[in-house]
Amino acid sequence: FGSDFKIAWSSTLLGHASAIGGIIRITDLDFVPSGGGQTSLWFVGSSNGNCGHLVPPPPGGFYQTDAAGYHAIIGALDLASCELDYCTTWGSETSGIYTAPYAVHSADGSVWVAGYTSGTEFSATQLPAPSAPGTGAIHSATHAGGLGGQWSNAFILRLKPSSYHLDYGTLIGGERDDILLDITSDPNGNVYFTGE
Q: What is the pLDDT of residues 128-180, one digit of tens each?
């Protein structure tokens, strides 16, 4: 939407959810420098069906097509060409709810994604430990929600935009619902989360 109040470009995204009553939601956007003076528009959201137009990254980037249930969506749009550079689902292969309502670009160049999930089985690829953890570093791939995963735990992911590499992920929460509701960063590269 331009300063002249005209729509410069619009498109549907990700096809449609194939499940009856399927829903795809894009819930947050952030601008991320992509090199050469270009900028990408990163987006996050969720879907409860099969997504069309998933776009794999170069080798070494995170890419998943088999996330079950109501899974998270993470992607990047090239603003110069208005084409998808990258798009993946995220979630375990078991049923559950995975929604990624918020994303932010931090000063260190990372894209952080925050959400919540009732899924209970995650691999080291989906929730990788920090490569050089310091004292007190937080990392858990164990869902602590009670009632057989009916309660949600929050999740936090960090991706590198240049390679689409998922280099950190963790679950946060206890036996009851833990839901992240917002995320922001400061000029020093620190990232802040709030929730309930």
A: 998 876 667 888 888 776 555 567 888 899 999 989 999 999 998 877 777 78
Rounded CA gap, 195 and 118, in Å? 16
Quick one: tokens of 65?
A: 């097509």
Q: Which amino acid is at 43?
A: F
180-185 and 165-172 as β-strands: parallel, antiparallel, unpaired? unpaired
Q: What is the pLDDT of residues 47-61, one digit of tens each?
A: 876 666 789 999 999
Structure tokens at 103: 């994303």
Tell me the HSE value of 178 on the side-chain side, using a 13 A CA sphere: 18
Measured distance CA(169)–CA(111) in Å, rounded:
12
Alpha helical stretches, state H, 84-179: 146-149
Instruction: Give how far the C-alpha of residue 98 lies from the chain's centroid of Cα atoms, to the nearest Å.
Output: 10
pTM: 0.86
